[in-house]
């Protein structure tokens, strides 16, 4: 558009991957969405979310060309979440982030139309009901993702161990061993969250995610956000494209209610 470029146009213009279809044909529960605080409905039956991660299940960090992922050994129930809106316990598989080129945007979800500079996704799958992640990712109750907003502020000690490893995974398809990390240090202690039924925000965009979005953000400093922005979408030897703006445009709420665990 000739008018000033909005982040959405920028987004769609910049990376075909993010030029995802408005929503999957027949899609009625796509993500991300704007969370309108006053439209969320307090549900007194929502339980507190119980998080128990074993830091030794951490395997490696890799750049998959969309984001950088920290992957975990999900062959047992050593790192799980249970409670909250969930019927079963879910196993931690990986966590990753989405961020912007500048601090004005970068998160996937928004709160009252406000973007945060970045958003953390901790991805879990329902190993009680499904035999593998690949099967769970195709089912309505297959995945549970904790979303945590990052805001610009104080230095985050726990995040720094991750940031220090990023230069080693600068290029797409690079990986390094990362053997002890407890991602609960990245989750705010405040128990408050919103929850709604949604989807993956990257291919295959399947409508299999119970989203649990923490109300409180974590604080990270400018240098830590800049470290995300020095990663590349491209492989070694290709023309460099900085890994920024790796978030999907907002999707229509359609016939969904966002519930809150707090009044
Ligand atoms: O929307 B998200 O970025 O946040 C939530 C979330 C969860 C999972 C993914 N994708 C994954 S794990 N794909 C690998 C895969 C996909 C399908 C089969 C095997 C393997 C992306 C996102
Ligand atoms: Zn994500």
Characterise the protein shown here.
By secondary structure, this protein is mainly beta. The protein has 4 helices and 15 strands. It has helices spanning 7-14, 133-136, 157-163, 222-229; strands at residues 34-35, 41-42, 49-52, 58-63, 68-72, 80-83, 90-99, 110-111, 118-125, 143-152, 175-177, 193-198, 209-214, 218-220, 259-260. The chain starts with 6 loop residues before the first helix and ends with a strand. Residues 1-14 have low confidence and may be disordered. 39% of the residues are buried. Residues 94, 121, 123, 133-134, 137, 143, 145, 200-202, 204, 209 line the site of ligand KL5. The ligand O[B-]1(O)OCc2ccc(NC(=S)NCc3ccccc3)cc21 is lined by residues 94, 121, 123, 133-134, 137, 143, 145, 200-202, 204, 209.
**How many H/I helices?**
4
Question: Could you say which small molecules are bound to this protein?
Answer: the ligand O[B-]1(O)OCc2ccc(NC(=S)NCc3ccccc3)cc21, zinc ion
Average predicted confidence as pLDDT: 93
Percent of residues in β-strands: 25-35%
Q: Which blocks of ≥5 consecutive residues have pLDDT under 50? A: 1-14
The best one-word shape is globular
Short description:
This protein has four helices and 15 strands. With 263 residues, it is mainly β.
Keywords, please?
single chain; 263 residues; two-stranded parallel ribbon; 28% strand; globular; binds zinc ion
Q: Helices and strands in order, then pairings?
A:
Blueprint: H1 7-14, E1 34-35, E2 41-42, E3 49-52, E4 58-63, E5 68-72, E6 80-83, E7 90-99, E8 110-111, E9 118-125, H2 133-136, E10 143-152, H3 157-163, E11 175-177, E12 193-198, E13 209-214, E14 218-220, H4 222-229, E15 259-260
Parallel strand pairs: 1-8, 2-15, 10-13, 10-14
Antiparallel strand pairs: 3-6, 4-5, 4-11, 5-7, 6-7, 7-9, 9-10, 12-13, 12-15
Bound molecules: ligand KL5 and zinc ion (ZN).
Ligand KL5 binds at residues 94, 121, 123, 133-134, 137, 143, 145, 200-202, 204, 209.
